[in-house]
Amino acid sequence: MNLTTTVLGKTYQLKSLKEVLAKANEEKSGDQLAGITAEDAKERMAAKLILSDLTLGDIRNHPLLPPDIDEVSRVIEDAVNDKIYNEIRGWSVAELREYLLRQETGNNEIRRISRGLTSEMVAAVTKLMSNLDLVQAAAKIEVQSHCNITIGQRGVLSGRAQPNHPTDNIQGMKASLFEALSYGIGDAVIGINPVIDSADSVKNILLATKEVMEKWSIPTQNCVLAHIKTQMKAIRQGAPADMVFQSLAGTEDGNKAFGIDVALLDEADELIRREGTGTGPNLWYFETGQGSELSAEAHHGIDQVTLEARCYGLARKYKPFIVNTVVGFIGPEYLYDSKQVIRAGLEDHFMGKIQQIPMGVDVCYTNHMKADQNDMDNLAVLLAAAGVNYIIGAPMADDCMLNYQSTSYHDIATLRETMRLRPAPEFEGWLNRMGIMENGRLTPLAGDPTVFM
Amino acid sequence: MDGSWITSAGIDIGTSTTKIIISRLKLVRASSALSLPRYEIAERQLLYASPIYQTPLKSWDEIDADRVWSIVSGELAKAGITKADLKSGAVIITGETATKANASSIVHLLSERSGDFVVATAGADLEGYLAGKGAGADRRSNQIRGAVANIDVGGGTANVAIFRRGKAIGTVTFHIGGRLIQLGERGNLLYISPSIRPWLNYRGYKLERGSSITFIDLKELCQQLCRSLLRYLSGNASSEQTYEAHTLLLGKPLNPLPDMEEWMVSGGIGKLMQDQAPVTLAETAIFQDIGPLLAHTLKECMNEYSLRWIEAEETVRATVIGAGMQSTEISGATVHLNAKLLPIRNLPVLKLDINEAMFHPPIELGHAVEETLRGSTSLFDSEASPPFALSVTGTFALNYVNLQQLAEQLHIRFIRYFPNSEVMVVICERDIAQALGQALQRRAGSGLQVICIDQIRVEHGDYIDLGEPISGMMIPVVVKTLAFSQRDGGMDS
Amino acid sequence: MIPSIELDQFVDRVMAELEKKLGSPDVSVTTESANSNAVTHSATDSGVVTIKVPQPRWEEGLAELIESTPARIGVWRTGTRPLTKEMLKFRCDHAAAIDSIYGEVNEKLLEQFGLFTVDTCYENTENYLRRPDMGRIITERGMDLIRESCKAKPQVQIVVSDGLSANAIDANLPDVYPSLLDSLTAYGLKVGTPFFVKGGRVAVMDHIGELLQPDVFVLLIGERPGLVSSKSMSAYLCYQPRKGTVESDRTVISNIHPGGTPPVEAGAYIGTLVHKMLEQKTSGIHLDL
Fold this sequence. Notes:
With 493 residues, chain B is of the alpha/beta class. Helices cover 32% and strands 27% of the residues of chain B.
């Protein structure tokens, strides 16, 4: 494995694959905070050059976090199809990039080689791709999933209705949900983040969302984004959950900080298959986001793009219905400004899709980040072009419970009309029956939440 | 503290029947770990419902309190509940037996023999309200746009409670009931209640004890009686018909009459509506009264109006279920308490409404407090300790300076007008009780003990029971409201 | 139980009230004023709700929905985009949030409460945002000042910091701080010498804790501003915070502002928490509430 190169007259000798991957990253404040970033633009280029010549075999043979000490590495390693891997092990990372972008390479080809890739290889190629590369390559990949309905078809942009309330008031949640539905939002999931992490509270919210779904025969799925243990307790008490949710990290230690491990996820997986109300086969909702491992001091000196790729490697084991990166939620110490958030959003979406994850993105920012709503408009358009499965719908993009800004019901409706995208077919059929949508466009009735009272 | 249960009893002593229920209420934390603690009653479960007893009477209108007690203690034993288990609940004495003498004897009896658990109360408005809640009219009203009326018809009165979007918006009571006219199986009239006389006279019915009535005539009478009520409630009554309905009124009419979409019937008559319709005098008089016929006539007549009839969740036990399961509220969990002083029962409520303008400068606040407390000396017993619960209402957020000014004014004037009171009870609408309580206590020193709770809405004229503290943080509260129609905006249910 | 009113009197009163049935019912009149674009709607008691949806299926229902949540709903649209005023309102709220991050706490307020100021190693706001670790360390000069000015080993140490919102301190300190002091006094607790930390992060408690060794530490700090409120403050409490204290050892009361956790009540309750921590000699997840 050659770790030496010369850029503009200066020779760089890097010490490890870990260092190459970290320094080849586009600038991220999180890598700087971890103290693993390239010193300057030249060193960054040196790392990219070195990386471009490494082979996929080099990457697999030099694990950043050996499987015997990290269960996430084990999950990723166990999923590799060795026959396919052996066909491509001699490819350089540069060749992988070019293969992905070649006109002859389509969805089926990518789907096949993805079975021979590890998350680290995916992260590596991402570091060599421009933003438009990431858009184009991701746009080739179609990942459909089915819980109660199918989403992820080409030409479909779904929305998560996120009707959170600062005190978990059920009426208030319903009010925001009615607003979402009236804009045609909610085909990905009716997903609520509770303030109170108790089984009683989770159960009440699941019952309330299920009641609305049943009353209006809405073809979608519900989920409450409490800790997995709380959801399991609620489900065992009879709460109607179509899916289970959990936040993931890319290392075993990171997951420990979230209070989870693979054994617990396996247990939850069995529970939702046995006692969930969703049709399946896809019954999971995961959230991820660059920087969470560093914030839990569980990053093992690995850069945040690579760790993020590993989250998707772990998620894949559970055949999720939806996964989204909450890209700008974590704060400026990990993603400083809109440039970094936009980059991370495109990276995460691509890295998820290539690992066959039904990928959505929470296009978002907090108020201490150098970003504003215009930046979110930009990223949302880029992701819609890249074929993102869904984005988040919060009332006027303002989540009054989590205190951050995402995308709005209006934004999803606008992206659909502007980019010629549609809601999930079964959901669109329902919108038509409700008189909210006609020929893929909102009717004059849309935007009146009292349709659901 | 995680979720816990408290046990509550409801006892309904009516004109003809007495029943008891035991329920348990689940308290769960309703605020996040990062907020001030706040608990809610998340679930109300019925544990035990007694059989329906004939109300033991000494004479036709005097309740035999001792026999009531033996029913109550027997039922508590059957339910496996000891006095110490009961944290809350309500006794309600209803209908024509809600007389002063009866209320007095029951109140004395229960407070002497059953310790601290229950409270006695009476009043047609409260009865109607509790029956409406027990029958599920409040919950039903949340599902539709218009108002829902529950008509709870028993032996002596029809108590109507109207709910809109989950809130009680009015109550009204009529002298209509199954036992107002009592008769034998051949139509021989045994008893005609004086309370129905004005209406009988208005309609020109000349019924006398000892005379007889035919089935056809009785049915026609019941129809007229029902229509009089239903026309009024449906808003279709002419002025003459409204006058007619007023002859049946107990207390105030409903004004204005809300737009109603649905109605339901609870009480003994609600139950009888489910049975076979009587077609002869003998079938009518199985309880020696007009109940079965009145019930079926009511059912038939309700079809004549555009309001939707829906089935009540509870019929004969609606009131007792409302009393036992729906009457208890929980105070906020940041409060100022002195456990040794609790429980306190039957505390009348004095109301002080504050607004932001009063504090700039606080002279107006001083006037308002002065006026409220000085005025109260004639209303309340100045020797009682505490003489009342002061309800501080107003929707604006008090800052620290305002709060100190409020505490100062309340303290000065309370000790001036009630120098002998050893306890001061303050009930706040907003979440300020711990801060206000500590501000008052600091001023009061060790002489006067302050109890200050919040997140309870009470009105002037209400009575309130303060229970024993739960986990040292909060107390169960029973608000006994005498008149719902007086509230603007209705009452949270 | 102490005797409240005599039972006979009570019964008398109930019966009297029943007979006269308290005056005639007051009808609350719903006032509606209208102009060409919007109908204002008199709501129960939480103020006026403006109805923007032109012909809602159920106007009263819409008011009910809007009142049930602080979320921006019932906002209507032009095409698929928000109305101009609504969009600008959102931008105004964002502007307020940004300003509170880059703002400074009012010096007069610090003087009023007798708080002297020390800095963390944050250097400037940009760096503060990128390097949370530097906001956890007091400068050497600051440490000297604390050593000179503060009572060592106090029972309760109170520290105020701007954190991510200077506005939060300006808006809430005058309510929370005196209420907290009253509460501590009522519990008979002794407070050390309070001061202000500029550019602080939560774990600055640990650095100061090493030096002053308080039993309980109370940090009042500005929160990351949201759009609903840019003036939200948190209280972090910890029993004997020292280097290496883990986050789960801290007890937090957040969202303190007039529209959230009520400031005056929060101050009083924080006193109760301090009292419990001293009794149980622990804090955070180990504290039994």
